[in-house]
Amino acid sequence: MELCVALDLPTAEENLALAKQLKEHNIWMKVGFRTYIRDGKPFIEALKEINPNFKIFLDLKLYDIPNTMADAAEEIAKIGVDMFNIHASAGSIAMKTIMDRLSSYEKRPLVLAVTALTSFDEENFQTIYEKGINEKAEQFAKMSYENGLDGVVCSTFESRVIKNATSTEFLTLCPGIRPFGEDAGDQQRVATLELAQKEGVDFPVIGRPIYRDENPASKVSQILKII
Ligand code: C5P
Q1: In sequence order, which residues have a C-beta less than 8 Å from that of residue 41 and are 6 or more positions away?
Q2: 3-class SS at 182?
Q3: Beta-sheet strands, E only, within the chain
Q4: Ligand 1 pocket: which of 4, 5, 7, 8 to mutate (most atoms within 8 A of CB)
Q5: Quick one: DSSP state of residue 116?
Q6: How far apart are CA 8 and CA 38, in angstroms?
């Protein structure tokens, strides 16, 4: 299991200050929409200056026509990030086009697909996808696996089912982790680190339980002792 810290603080300065507190550890840093739109590539370079061994997950959830997605994937590979994601509902042609395009890169980033956004409830999800969340998440995971992606973004509660339907090597990245049962905030279905381990989660994504702690560095050390 490899820890991925969500850099969700409101400004670049605060996110970089958090990264500085955690620089002893060669962990993953998740850079999302808001930060990337505002602070762009220089922010990623600043993170790498703090610790060149930080691994970067660019969480932009791409969704467009296959060629446009593959163009974007190539630009992401050129930035030198270590992992990015797309929406699985972009479909198998988009997946295949992206993976074909990245195959010429010696060190390509890992590519994950988002199965179901956790903000959906069952009813709203069905309105769009005409299937239940669990069934569709498994179907999306299989499609991602068959088209050569490295893994999916899913909840801890789907991690084992998805691995059983694909391969134990197929990566699961799971937000909604409360390592030691901390406050859930707006997350509906949260899991402890212990459960995440049991369910075979490869990347637990943890935001608030780390950056809202009065000592984020010691919280990360506690987490790393377990995983
Ligand atoms: O603070 P917390 O640990 O809940 O942060 C979880 C992170 O994972 C946030 O950046 C959130 O946007 C992201 N995420 C999520 N659910 C998804 C996809 C991403 O919570 N399905």
Answers
A1: 79
A2: coil
A3: 4-6, 28-32, 55-62, 83-87, 110-114, 151-153, 171-174, 203-206
A4: 8
A5: S
A6: 12
pLDDT in tens, 108-139: 999 999 998 877 888 999 999 999 988 999 99
Determine whether 30 is an active site residue: no
Cα 61 to middle of ligand 1, angstroms: 12
Residues 3-13: pLDDT tens digits? 999 999 999 99
From start to end of 22-104, where are the E strands? 28-32, 55-62, 83-87
For the chain, the maximum distance between any two Cα atoms, rounded to a whole number of angstroms, is: 47
Task: For residue 192, report the distance from its CA to the centre of ligand 1, in Å.
Answer: 15
Distance, CA of 64 to CA of 31 (rounded, Å): 20
Beta bridge partners of 9: none
Across-strand partners of 152? 113, 172
Calculate how far, in angstroms, residue 97's C-alpha sits from the geometric centre of ligand 1: 27
Task: Record the pTM.
Answer: 0.95
